[in-house]
Amino acid sequence: MCQPTGNPVTVLRYSSMFILTQRTLVQSISQLRLFTSAHSQIRIRWSDGEDRALAEAFEKYGNDWKAIAKHLPGRAVKGCKFRGLYGKSLDTGTPRNVHLHWTEAEDKLLREKIAESGGRCTVSIAKQIPNRKYKQVYDRWQRLQLNGDIKYGPWLSEETNRLVEAIQKHGVHDWEAVSKKVRTRTKFQCLQKYITTNPLIKQGKWSPAEDSALIDALNSYPGKWIAIASEVSKKTGGLRTNSQCRHRYINVLDPKLIKTPFSKEGMHWEDQALIDAFHRFGNEWTMIAQVMPTYRGARACKLRLQNLEQKGLIQKTPNPP
């Protein structure tokens, strides 16, 4: 296993914490205003003219939803993105809820297209698989490469040994390479196994000092989670992985997060959006959170769907094979 590096810093910079708290408060107020505007816009029914304008803008700008929204007065960026992903405007032949199960014909077509491209799974390949998003195509190809031999549940000793060897060879940042070496586990399973079994990695609740260090590091290295994790570990003396840092921020600390409760009165427009996204992406909660018209975070989306299921308001679709 890899050892942590750097000397821990135990003295917190209170002045920086105060400045960051003020900045976060201002950003939260700004985001609340934006959400209030977007909330009212999303609930207005889309007209045929808006659908046509959205389709034309999509043809011109692709997935640049900010540019697309500029051509649709009164529509928020996330509202346009959600309509584009789930509405009828971009592809009238695509059903709203594509079943997650892959057919033999789809697998055959995917293998043929991958072979034609020289063995690489690209966005252009995904576009040739009807009614499938790139993430679905990529994940399916990963499974097919492993001959469907992905295991779940407790790890066998030989799997753990292969994981250790793979980490020694590839390190703790290239989990796709590690997964290929292990052979029977996905990259996410390998990462989770590493996190839960490495005694050097701190688990459980984050301290205020860690949160402050994370925000400070994010300001210095925006989007560079490996560097951010390194800074957090140096400043707090407890090793946190880049995955832990990223999830902590996007699910808890991000000032853009909407933390008001979901509607308590039965099914709500936001709930329907969540269910549609789940039918589309399965248990890919990060992906679901990204396409939601409101910014809730992956953890909040997962908990809300579980709550709806417990109340008997929905029945979850089976996971993909």
From TrEMBL:
Coiled coil: none annotated. Residues 38-83, 94-149, 198-257, 270-313 form the HTH myb-type domain. The keyword Transcription applies. GO terms for molecular function: RNA polymerase II cis-regulatory region sequence-specific DNA binding; RNA polymerase III type 3 promoter sequence-specific DNA binding. Keywords: DNA-binding, Nucleus, Transcription, Transcription regulation. Residues 43-83, 102-145, 147-194, 198-253, 270-309 form the Myb-like domain. Residues 158-202 form the SANT domain. GO terms for biological process: snRNA transcription by RNA polymerase II; snRNA transcription by RNA polymerase III. It comes from the Eukaryota. The keyword Oxidoreductase does not apply. One of its GO terms (cellular component) is snRNA-activating protein complex. Gene3D superfamilies: Homeodomain-like (1.10.10.60). PANTHER family: SNRNA-ACTIVATING PROTEIN COMPLEX SUBUNIT 4. This is Homeodomain-like protein. It comes from Jimgerdemannia flammicorona.
